[in-house]
Amino acid sequence: MKQISLLIIIMILALAITSCAPVEDDIFATARITVAAGDDLTITRVQAQAKLTNVNTRQVLSSANFEGNGVTIELLRGAYQIDIEGVATCQMPDGGTHMRQFRCQCDYAEFISKEQNDITLNMIFLD
Amino acid sequence: MRRLFLFILIFITIKAAWASDADSALVEHTTLGKLPQQESLRNPALHRIGYQQSFSQLALGIDLQRQSTAFIPEKGDGYTLPYLKVNTYHHLNQRSTVWGEASYMTGRQHNIKWNSTSDYDLLQPYILADTLGGDTRRERYTISGGYATRINRCLLGGEMLVRAEQEYRGHDPRMRGIVTDLTLRLGGGYEFNRYRLGAAVEGEIYKQTNSVAFYREEGVIPEYQMTGLGTEYSRFSGDKRSIYYDGGAVALLLHASPVGDCGPYADVTLDEHRYHRKLAEYNSMPLTDLYVDHAGTTIGWKRDNGSRLAAFAHLDYTRRTGNEHVGGTSDARYFPVIACLTMYKNRLFDSYLSALYGNRGWNVVIAAGYQSQNEEYIYPHREMDASHIYGKLQGQCFLHASDKLLLTVDAHAAYLANVSDKMQMPFANMEEGVTRLIHHKHEFAKADYTVLDAKVRADYAWKQTRYGLFAEAGGGITWCSAGEHQTLFQCAIGFTF
After folding, report:
1. CB proximity B339 to A under 8 Å
2. Whose CA, among A77, B342, B366, B422, lies 20 to 30 Å from B180?
3. Is residue A32 predicted with pLDDT exceeding 60?
4. Multiple choice CATH, A25-125, 3.40.309.10, 2.60.40.1190, 2.60.40.1120, 1.20.1250.20
């Protein structure tokens, strides 16, 4: 019986040692996407739809929850293609405000960090 | 015909006597009574004390299985596999023993769907798959050999096993899987006054090259890089049809048993397997890694002094973990890996209590247990669980029909009853074909099963020699509560020496 007890102790120790599959359970990341219009214009409000396509899984996420000139999205860590289309309220250098239609595009952006991932995209005005 | 059957029955009844002589080599090597020590025989050092008599056999046989519909579509709905196998176990002298096996098997797997990869049980869910499938041809060569010796109270042994296999299809989609599998085991043991302790280590190297070709250009369909529960690695699915698997395993085997006829015993097995799937046409880009951690233990008590009695409990836990590599932007067909995420988890648990009673002429084994499996894809969340309780009854008897003719009858019955099941899937976002596959798999995972198998073997021995001829035939049927069934037929002829 002494040997059996010894065997069970060895088994428990060996189990602890051999459970060594590398597990990465932190699979989600936060992406903060900011749109910018250049130095001359100040963006005060954005109403747009941001569509993010995971390059590897082809899963599509979308959000219209812009705060100021940016949107924050919880997503699977990975590489994404970004398309944003909508309107922005711009403050002109002369002090006037204008509503302008715009789009942003990025073919490849990595959101890998387990903390916040920031990216700034330049607006392409359509009007 | 009925008269002939009646005559055979009466003949056997009159002539039959339980094989009560000293165990013949055949009986010793095929008896169910050795069940409590089956686990320990993975340690090559303990092969030396596994059997008292040398025994060799050459067999030519065929295994056939048919299912009314495939229980697991990836494995097809049946097979026809003829084989030729020779195995030997030979005591060289009082101290040393050698054993070995060589076999060749060729045949067909029928109606495989959603799988273009060989060794499905080993590598699932990380396989290449298409919706068309079809029959495949299989060829397998195995060779193994081992040596064990005793130095005073020390037992030492080593063993090598090689498997080479190819599976292919002669029409579109022309899958091909070529497998090489090498396993090495080294073991030792020491006999104390009352107890024998054993330990062995095992190492495995595994490779498979896997591809699918289409000869008819108008009939090309996509091949999917499956990632579990109907998901796929979309970026590298479609026209990426050439992959390979690189892997291996390490295992630790521990054993304790009484040196005498009676006492408690225990076996512990710890395995860790890893299989990496790589994309051959993109600079060996790693796609997925599968890690299989397994721990199993048997603790029991046995007595073997003329009559056999054993009672044992078995626990088995397997954790299968799948990591997906996230590919970055390509540069001249080179994809850097920018992250690795654990997306697939599969946990399998099996436990049972079993008892064996018998003697040199017959054995009965009963078992009752519980098994469960939980399969999960993390995001988007998919889950499939099922658990069963089961009972098994197994019997074997050796009948001397005459001085030269020994009949061995084996029978096995089992019933698995589902106790719980669960499925959670994002069906709204799933394609129709995948949805059908998942429903089908869940239906068979949660089903109840009734299993009946029987086998008869006749051995004709030449008097005064160790040579003999044998023929065996067996069959079985499995009923599934999903309304389907499976039939099994096997037969073999050969000679023993």
Report:
1. yes
2. B342
3. yes
4. 2.60.40.1120
Pairing of strands A116-122, A28-36: parallel
Query: Are the beta carbons of A23 and B342 separated by less than 8 Å?
Result: yes
Sequence ranges of the domains in chain B: 2-496
Q: Do B380 and A59 touch (CB under 8 A)?
A: yes
DSSP-derived 3-state class of residue B25:
helix
CA separation for the pair B249, B271 (Å, rounded): 7
What confidence score (pLDDT) does residue B355 get?
A: 96
List pLDDT tens digits, range B324-376: 999 998 877 788 999 999 999 999 999 999 999 998 889 999 999 999 999 99
Of A19, A57, A78, the CB nearest to B293: A19
User: CA dist B76 to B208, B441, B482, Å?
Assistant: 20, 13, 17
A24/B272 CB distance under 8 A = no
pTM: 0.90
The Cα–Cα gap between B61 and B460 comes to 17
Q: Is the complex ipTM more than 0.90? A: no
Domain ranges of chain A: 25-125
Once rounded to an integer, what is the mean pLDDT over residues B409-430?
A: 95
Place of tokens 């003697």: B359
Min Cα separation A114/chain B (Å): 11
Q: Among partner residues A1, A76, A110, which is closest to B338 by beta-carbon distance?
A: A110
Q: Nearest 5°: phi and psi at A40?
A: -75, -30
Residue appearing with tokens 């100021």: A68
Phi-psi label, residue A53: left if phi above 0, alpha if psi -120 to 50, beta otherwise: beta
Question: For residue B319, how many C-alpha atoms fall within 13 Å in the half-sphere facing its CB?
Answer: 13
Sign of CA dihedral B69, B176, B107, B60: negative
Q: What is the Cα B331 distance to its own chain's centre? A: 43
Best of A2, A11, A20, A106 to disrupt the B interface (most B CBs within 10 Å) is A11
d(CA B422, CA A72): 34
- Sign for the CA dihedral angle at B40, B42, B46, B52 comes to positive
